[in-house]
Amino acid sequence: MDKKPSSWISHIEAFVDSSRPPKQQAANVDAIAALVKNDLLTLEALVRDMELYLTTSDHSIRARGILLLAEILNCLMSKPLDGASISSLVEFFTSKLADWQVLRGALIGCLALLRRKKNVGMVKSSEARAVAESYLMNVQVQSLAVHDRKLCFEVLQCLLEVYPEAVEMLGDDLVYGICEAIDEEKDPRCLMLTFHLVEILARVFPDSSGSVASFAGDLFDILSRYFPIYFTHPRSDDLDITREELSMALMHAFCSTPFFEPFAIPLLLEKLSSSLPLAKLDSLKYLNNCIQHYGTDRMIKHAKAIWSNLKDVILNHSPHKTLFSTSELAGNMESEENQIAKEALICLQTAILHLDSLEKNPILSFIVEDEDIEMKFGLVSNEGTGTGISIESRRQLSAVGNILSVSSKASMSGCTRVFQKFFPRLMNILEISASSSSNGCNTNNGTSSLNFGALYLCIQLLASFRELILTSQDFSPQVITVQDGWWCMLQHFSGPLAHALGSALMGARSSELVNNNTGHEHAIYEVKGLQVLATFPGCYLPTSEDVYEYILVIFMSIATERFEDAFLWKLSVKALIEIGSFIEKYHDSYRGISFNRIVVERIVSLFQQDDSTMPLALKLDAISEIGTIGVDYMSRVIKLLEEAILSKFLAVCVEGRLEAAEILVPLLECYSNRVLLWCYTSGNFDEVAMQFALCIWNQMESITIFDKDAKIQDLFDRMMTTMKLLVGGCAEENQSLIVRKAYSVLLSTSFLSEESLPFSSSKLEGLQVTPDFVNLSWRDEWIVSLFASVVIALLPQTPLPDVKLLLNVLTTFLLKGHLPAAQALASMVNKWHVNIDKSEVPNAYTLDEAIEMILERSLLSVQSSSNLGKSDLLNKDERMLSCLCLLNNNSSFQSNAVVGLAWIGKGLLMRGHEKVKEIAMLLLQYLLSNPYKELHSDASGSGDSLDVHTSLATSAADAFHVILSDSEVCLNKNFHAMIRPLYKQRFFSSMMPVLLSSIKQSCSSSMRVALYRAFAHVISDAPLAAVVAEAKKILPSLMDSLAMLSEDVLNKDLIYSLLLVLSGILMDDNGKEAIIENINTVISDLIRLIFYPHMMLVRETAIQCLVAMSALPHARIYPMRPQVLRAVSKALDDRKRVVRQEAVRCRQAWVSMA
Amino acid sequence: MTLGLINANPVVHAKKERVARAEDSHADDAVDALDVFDSVRDIRDPEHPYSLEQLSVLSEESIAVDEKLGRIQITFTPTVQYCSMATVIGLCLRVKLMQCFPPHFKVDINVTPGSHVDEEAGEDRRCPTSETILVDSLGTHKPSCAV
């Protein structure tokens, strides 16, 4: 106990010594706070011992002492303290507020005490008032530094928020004090606080006779100076405050009390006409909020001014482009202009909703009676029949349309008034007469095009009316209780209107539509109009049943007959889908029936007829779109598609009608891309996919014939992709169902069922099937491929039947050059279960055994066919030997085996298995074996053998590409591969030293080419960051490989990716150093590549690299300048424009460098 | 030398839209008038902050290219008849073409007949000292290495 005090006193001394670094001081505070927190030291004892520091007449020591006490209290925020100590501490700090030398400590102390929660003992409200009084009397906020000002505002904020009733008694003194404190504040951090202060201050004094009411003018005067917020602080700053946040805070302050109304509204309206877009935007936002907060009584007198100002903004800032494009496009263009118009409309809507007293809505009356609107209405609705409309009138049109639609959207009464005033006139202009007969399509038969302005406004009105009904329907089921006059009017007009729109749509010649925008615009609004008319909810449908059906028929006739006009076709199909979705959403069974009859049935039958003129792609479009309406529709579409696919499949594979393959491919595409995708998002994927996969396998059993045909190959690729998607998306149990089915079909293949072959299960143990024995039919190959695609897409946990047999079969096919089999094997080893319980499944392989088996099989079979082999199992060295034996063997299995090894290596590498090293070494062995040596020892068939060797070495080199590149077909996330992070980097760093040293040791040129090829694959497929880090080591070899490989045309893609690696190195700082060290070779190699004849991209990239090199240190590149300039000016004559342009740039860069 | 501008208020025309060329991966791209125009359209007028295209001194139609014979012929129209800058403009064009096209092209630069009083003198009346002006107009970085 005796030691303790002395130790913490040293902390105090250390803290008071202001020369210590801040970090150390903070540690001191923490140390003392920890003592107090753990009751090793009482607060009283602390204060008593600190007495000297707290009361000394040395200002700096006193300030430090008080600061220390305050900081300690700050740390004890959650420690319970008794009332007496809190009282005495508050009293102390309150008195210290008067001592300006120690102000910071006093502020922090007050703040720490005021912020305490009730459960740990808080300050009494009388004490809080004392703090406030002392604060108001003693603290001159604006004479302090930023940090202290911020503390002051925090104290005020805390007082107002936590002790409102205590400080309220201070009344005018408090408000005046706050005014004084926040006046002229400029720091953004403090401003955030001051704006907030005003907001809570208004809450504390809500009375109209209160202090805020009497000081409102002064307060607002202080606030208004900041509006609109002008904030130029760079974003990257540590302040972490944006202009938007400041503006938001100021807005809340503006809206905080209705007493600001007489000052705020005139200011906002004035700024609304400012020429600064930002000021406009802010004023609109503020105004919108103020209308909501100040209350109707206060705002109603400003109605006229608000309307006239808003009108100006809307009329002058409406975008003209929204007319052009469909709604989604318009949403993307968030230009300032658009934002202003949007905010203005929102504000107008608020005004209409809020400024509504005694059933008299002043704003609405202004709108309806406004002369400007009247004039513009007359102007735009009469303009432009068909031909182009000027941008200005387009703008006016959209402005008027928006105003009308906002005012009719706002309320039922608004809708009534707007509708009554404008709708009959629009009908008049469109020359549509109200007739009760639905066949009143005697309107303008001759001229089919409607007046665009009137059409636009009319559709806007109808659409907003429909929206109003839809939104208000949620609150009360019966909106239209009285059969208002306008409602009757709408009912009367809707029939003829629909007919007019329909006939205009049908009448428009397609050439007209294709060739100009006006036609498109017309079509957009005509379609939209019909769609709106057809989608009024339930009982409010203004149109009669036959008009509704007429609309559907119109759309259908476009969908079935006008397919050569893609734009119109898409529009109307989309409209149909919208109508369908609407019916689905509101469960309108009555209209659903006619929709089914007219639309769905028709499209279905259209789809089933083979002979129609409509292109298949469009049919598929239409039918898959119909499916997206809802689950019922989709299940129907799925059934339909599946039937079609299966019947076509039968036609192709059983009856041998190859031409059906052309139809089957797009069918499968549509199925996998659209239907399956939809199922995936809507959640019933499993069921659908499993059923369909089983169906396909059922069909596979019965297929018979084939000859090799390009069409069939195409079809089969599609088929495999679909199968992978189906299986990949399924859950485990469904996958195992599919696998079992597929397995049973696999067993029926000729090579597995025939007794004569050594595959029969009894003999399977000892004998291996060698590829030579198996003569495959096309059917077998298809079944194996399809089976392989099932295996590729399986989840790791899905069990496979009879793994041994599968490994055997797949390996056999691998050796026959069957790529899917290799990929399936790779997937198998990649997803192999490590923890298989041996006792449970006695026959199960471990992963290592499986790999051993595959490797031996691949090498042994090759060996046995080359008559050099040993019959027994091979150990490692012997395996190397056998791989060397491959060289003398001209069977095609060799390169197949190499490709297979590559895929299996990839599977192992991705899961991070050690065996991949062995495979990589095997591959390297192929690269390193010298054919010449063999040639000398074995003179026969020299030329042939050399060819075989080079092709083998090439495929061994390409194997590295397979191992490192990402595959779309298998071993990826979609097909549930196990992927260890950074596996590429690991392979790169383990292979690179080996490759580099073998390159160094290699003697023959053909061997070097192969090695460089492998090297090139490894560095171009590995992540760039890893390669760049090794830039110094690999750059010489990189340049050599560029030089070597550029001799063969076939390597052009490889050259290109090497150049990309080089340019990546050029962009990196370490890389640049490596480049500078090898500057001569790099430049001369690049110059050679400028004239690379086989690929434009190579020439272009080489020149770009040279441009980048012109920024390297001058002294190093200057000697190369003449050489580069000479080469580049020759490139000015390149065949390709892009290259010439790059050459000009490059020349400029190198010329101006001197 | 007059102190004021020769043409104080030139008529400024809109820039023509840049056409993205269709990529044809197999065929050769021959040098055509648009190529030439693209390389010279952004040369700044010696007097005004506008490009030659904006002042309508040049257009795509005023350029003729014969790739087989290796000839480029540019005809430009000074904004006023007494334009003393015509030679500078001609020089700018020549240097720019030298930079952008292989040396085997023969470049002819003329003024439109009737558009300039010194038509006969033509572009060849250039003076070597104008290189510094030239460099500014072409926007190269360092004046010391004009050509």
Automatic annotation (TrEMBL), chain B:
SUPFAM superfamilies: Fe-S cluster assembly (FSCA) domain-like (SSF117916). One of its GO terms (biological process) is protein maturation. Belongs to the MIP18 family. This is Protein AE7-like 1 isoform X2. It comes from Elaeis guineensis var. tenera (Oil palm). The gene is LOC105060790.
